[in-house]
# Entry
Amino acid sequence: MKKWVFWLAALVVLAAMESSLRGLIGAYNYQIVILVGINIILAVSLNLINGYTGQFSIGHAGFYAVGAYTSASVVVYGGPAIRAATAFLPQTAQNAVLLLLGIIAAAIAAGIAGWAVGIPSLRLRGDYLAIVTLGFGEIIRVLILNIDAIGGARGFSGIPQLSNFFWVYLGVLITVVTVHNLVNSSYGRAFISIRDDEIAAEAMGVDTTRFKVMSFVISSMFAGIAGSLFGHYTMYLHPNSFLFTTSFYLIIMVVVGGLGSIEGAILGAVLVTVLLEVFREFGAFRLVNFSILLVLIMIYRPQGLLGAWTLFRTRKPAPATK
Amino acid sequence: METFLQQVINGISQGSAYALIALGYTMVYGVLRLINFAHGDVYMFGAFMGYYLANIPWIKSGVGTSAAGAVFVMLGAMVLSAGLGILIERFAYRPGRGPTRFTLAFWLGLLGAGGGQMAGQTFTSVVLGAFAGIAAGVVLELLGIRPVRQESRLALLIIAIGVSLFLENGGQQAFGADPKFFPQIIPTTSFKVGPLDLDSQRVIVLLVSLVLMVVLNIIVNYTKTGKAMRAVSFNLDAAKLMGINTDRIIAFTFALGSALAAAGGILVSLLYPRIDPLMGVMPGLKAFVAAVLGGIGNIPGAMIGGLIIGMAEVMAVGYGQSTYRDAIAFVILVLILLLRPAGIMGKGMIEKV
Amino acid sequence: MGILDVRNCTKRFGGLVAVKALNMCLNQGDLYGLIGPNGAGKTTVFNLITGVYKTDEGSIELDGRTIHRSKPSSIARLGISRTFQNIRLFRSMTVLENVKVARHMRKKQGIVDAIVRTRHLKTEEDEIERDAMNLLKIFNLDARADELAFNLPYGSQRRLEIARALATSPKVLLLDEPAAGMNPHESLELMRLIRSIRDEFHITILLVEHNMKVVMGVCEKIQVIDYGETIALGTPKEIQGNPKVIEAYLGGA
# Structure
């Protein structure tokens, strides 16, 4: 299939679904579908660093927050000027421009944050890296808490609602395709070689630091995009949405589904989000059972529900020729 | 200068509480190479056990007058928390190391109880659910469902996170989500030493922490079990080959660490009596930072790390940066790991190629 | 001046001097053996050459370029590749992918190429795959290209490691105990293979090996070290008769 045919079809389907979905499933379910989509973006991107590159980061919520707040700031503070500049466009197109600018700013800001965090910390390994990323995530949150222009502890309100099913799932599609193409390229093999054996990878000419930072930055950029889509859907941001527990839940999605499998991350994101929503009436109790299930899965199936299973295999090897 | 000294004293008492929790992290890391994320919640559990013990009528009537009552509350909570530590180790971490029985029955029993609560919300439904779960677990185990040997530390870490979530949310169910107020189990008296205001709580916190750390040092350095602990943390497989019952030593380590965390929980509750099921989250993380700061796996390091973190926090709050309080521990952590990844007292390791 | 020049290299671990003012000079096309009793510092020498450890004193040059301050991946790019004593394959990858990884650094693909899947990427991927398959064929591994490297029998894993190392197109190939764990038949096969690699790929080979039959049979020049110091250097014949060497091996005072 030609690439542009795929993307055109995707746009048409997404637009059609956007116009009918809310009426079909109701506002409440629509919101869950949106949350699922945002969590898929987060889980799939986190999987790039945790699953494929084998670096244990538990600070994803920090980059998610950077994206959300950056995008909201750009739209709230830069909105009037951008609208004035695009006044010749219809309202919907203006919104799209605004959102896209927000998303781009979010991706760049989160990417820079990822780079700034990754450069010093990625030379640490395993548990140390985990705890430093967690620390950075918390530092980012406390910084946001102390910036008054973006609401501080009161939360950031008055964000226009720009994102919807169409945008969120377009984001999902772009994330999944990007990560899929990436991990099935030489870059992906370099990531996996680092996960499998860092010393051997380095000896085979893989610049491990460079690839680790790269995977970290890409992962952060998508977290930023997810943050932007989130803020422009909920119209309100609070630092408490980006606690390290959020990072924990993201890791749980990745691990429950299966580390190093895109399908696994998607499955994990859907399962965790939906289960927690469906049983919301039981409050903390559902979390008790959820945590037991998590422990059981990890004890009895540590590779996750899907393991490294994947729907789309890479290409078959070509025959050798002289 | 006086305020400064006053802050130093506050910092030391806050820091010694962190140190008590950090010790558990560091010991468990020593023997299992695992960040036991559930450790902060054991600290919370300890505080609640203290709360309930202190509210037993015949203790309550004597609290404030008898030192014996306070000692009973303290030791009781420590013993109960040690039990919790052993349970966590036995049913969450040990299955990954080798064949263990009743793991499935244990968790499915809990799950069944939870399911019963969600379905019927009566005592009978909970008990029925628990029994159904246990039965299912036993049957599945007989059918040959076995825990998988944990190759990756990641899975073990996720288990730790799972146990932590379990204790936090289970705590909200069992103890109620609203904060409770820890009773004054020792009488408050304030006195002045030179220009400094001291009170009995702070002094007691300091003294008890000191005593516990000395006791711990004696156990680790001068008893046979302590020697075995050091052997296990040096090399688990070799220790096993030398005839050490490693499972028992690991369980003992968890018990010891949990008891110290419980003591920390009670001591902090003396200073800040508001307790709730999520109270362990932040101190737990900060204590872990303290352990890393001191060089994880290193016992004196954990004590020093705890003191540094406590001191830094109190200083920052005392000098007007209270909104940044929660970030300070992490800033210190990041700096330390970047400058000296092995921590203050730790030794670097070279990977064999 | 040789292709690989180790000059006065010293490496200490704490108080232990693992390598002491070591000199070593390989000429283009050499089949050079580095031997010594256990703990003599042979693997440390490998780790110094490949940049895993940094030298405390002395210098290492590859083709006249100083390399002892570079990181391992840069050294690999400059043309030194290696195998490992305790096999270090990428365990979750297939046999073919293991070789492909090593081939990447000789290619140029941008990250945008990878994400958007440009035509350029496709042709280059095909090239990588062809090169990799050709290498596997030489090592008799092409039939198992799609299997997980981890599932190969021991001897094949050793051969795959050599194939992977060659995929980086090295000037100098370092083999760390390639015959370890092989039976006499397999080691004989290996000796033939090592010679043919040198001749076909026109590279220089440095070999650390415990199996004396292999070393004596395949190497043209041998350097013996003990306690990090050179005690003998010469042809296999000269080495075999050297009293110092015999003493080191038999553990005389």
